[in-house]
């Protein structure tokens, strides 16, 4: 594993946001949802595609806070332009478990 320094880490904008919209994404190659995540005033609302259908339903995702990278360049994923990368971990079965704050924090807070 390559080491990074503090300046490298500071380049990554990991921020918390609240999922405000969840839609099915039938055009995706692997099962996924289309998300809109509110990162507060400074960053705003960003769209993302997330392959998280194994453990989450649209209902359980709505209003959930997540940690995402918000400073990647936009990436075309099928018919949508993904504007952030929602983060998570693979469990032992290969399903994605979202990285989430332990308690509610203001949208847009940066991971330190």
Description:
Keywords: RNA-binding, tRNA-binding. One of its GO terms (molecular function) is tRNA binding. It comes from SAR86 cluster bacterium. This is tRNA-binding protein. With about 110 residues, the protein is mainly β. It has a single domain (about 15-100), classed as OB fold (Dihydrolipoamide Acetyltransferase, E2P), CATH 2.40.50. The protein has 3 helices and 9 strands, in the order H-E-E-H-E-H-E-E-E-E-E-E. The strands form 3 sheets. It has a 5-stranded antiparallel β-sheet with strand order 3-2-1-4-7. A hairpin with a 2-residue loop joins strand 5 and strand 6. The model has no long low-confidence stretch (mean pLDDT about 95).
